[in-house]
């Protein structure tokens, strides 16, 4: 047993539970959008994002258990605060999308893009927040190899997704 085991389990369980709730909301919204004429991008790059995210749940406990460097430290509280801030940012962005929030790419013809909340200032705030969150969680536990692995794979998956999404929405530069 390592000091912090319960905290690690609680954080991972919380993040996982959030993702399950988000998937449920997303599926409901997607059905409604498609019923209203929405057009789903069939190959939207979701699987690599999900796979990279799943890597967090596998690699972090392994590094925690086997890496002598992994543990709690002065970085734990700031990293958890960053993860919480990223989650709040993600929820603000999702709330700004309202019924148009989905984890899949659905274009609504003849409807303008959402320009409220963080979308007033930037594109893809949810992706940015997810990236920060998946970086901060392993860092909170001194799992630096996991953080590097997840940050790189998530960045590649999100870059691929953004290219596909922007083409589908007619935003490609």
Written description of the protein model:
With 173 residues, the chain is mainly α. It has one domain: Four Helix Bundle (Hemerythrin (Met), subunit A) (Up-down Bundle), CATH 1.20.120.1630. Helices cover 66% and strands 2% of the residues. It is built from five helices and two strands; from the N terminus they run αβααβαα. The protein has a two-stranded antiparallel sheet. It is elongated. The mean pLDDT is 95.
What's the helix and strand layout?
Blueprint: H1 5-35, E1 39-40, H2 46-66, H3 76-97, E2 106-107, H4 125-140, H5 144-168
Antiparallel strand pairs: 1-2
Reported by name, the CATH topology is: Four Helix Bundle (Hemerythrin (Met), subunit A)
Q: Give the overall form.
A: elongated
Secondary structure category: mainly alpha
Individual helix count = 5
Note poorly predicted spans. Answer: none
End-to-end CA span? 52 Å
How many domains make up the 3D coordinates? 1
Q: Give the tally of β-strands.
A: 2
Oligomer class: single chain
Residues in β-strands, percent: under 5%
Helix proportion range: 55-70%
CATH class: Mainly Alpha
| Spatial extent as radius of gyration | 17 Å
Instruction: Going across the biggest sheet, name each strand in turn.
Output: 1-2
- Which series of helices and strands comes N to C? HEHHEHH
CATH architecture: Up-down Bundle
Largest sheet, strands/sense/barrel = 2 strands, antiparallel
Task: Provide a concise account of the structure shown.
The protein is mainly α. Helices cover 66% and strands 2% of the residues. The protein contains five helices and two strands; from the N terminus they run αβααβαα.
């Amino acid at each position: 047993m390592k000091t912090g085991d319960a905290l690690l389990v609680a954080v991972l369980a919380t993040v996982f539970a959030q993702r399950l709730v988000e998937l449920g909301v997303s599926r409901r919204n997607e059905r409604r959008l498609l019923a209203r004429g929405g057009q789903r991008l069939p190959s939207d790059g979701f699987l690599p994002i999900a796979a990279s995210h799943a890597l967090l749940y596998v690699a972090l406990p392994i590094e925690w258990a086997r890496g002598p460097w992994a543990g709690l430290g002065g970085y734990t509280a700031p990293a958890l605060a960053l993860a919480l801030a990223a989650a709040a940012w993600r929820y603000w962005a999702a709330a700004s999308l309202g019924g148009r929030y989905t984890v899949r790419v659905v274009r609504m013809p003849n409807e303008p893009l959402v320009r409220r909340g963080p979308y007033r200032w930037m594109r893809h705030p949810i992706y940015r927040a997810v990236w920060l969150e998946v970086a901060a969680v392993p860092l909170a536990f001194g799992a630096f190899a996991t953080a590097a692995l997840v940050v790189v794979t998530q960045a590649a998956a999100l870059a691929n997704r953004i290219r596909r999404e922007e083409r589908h929405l007619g935003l490609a530069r």
